[in-house]
Fold this sequence. Notes:
- The chain is α/β, with parallel strands linked by helices.
- The chain has helices at 13-22, 47-55, 71-75; strands at 2-5, 31-35, 60-64.
- A three-stranded parallel sheet has the order 1-2-3, with no helix packed on it.
Amino acid sequence: MIFVTGDTHRSDLFCLRVFCDNHPELTKSDYVIIAGDFGGVWAKDTLESDLKQFSDLPVTVLFVDGNHENFDLINAYHVET
Length: 81
């Protein structure tokens, strides 16, 4: 399955956990796409722990950046094709 949401601003991680808890059949083969304003890439010093919270979910989380992101941090990463 593919699910799409947006404007999570990382604070809605709780809602994603509740969603996953209510759908125990979900696996890493299921995708949640956060379409804008993900907020998970915000502070360099907490980035690993911030993103781990999403990788610990039973689904695969993907995101599209929005206007409320830390673009300085995002743009500091190497682009791969």
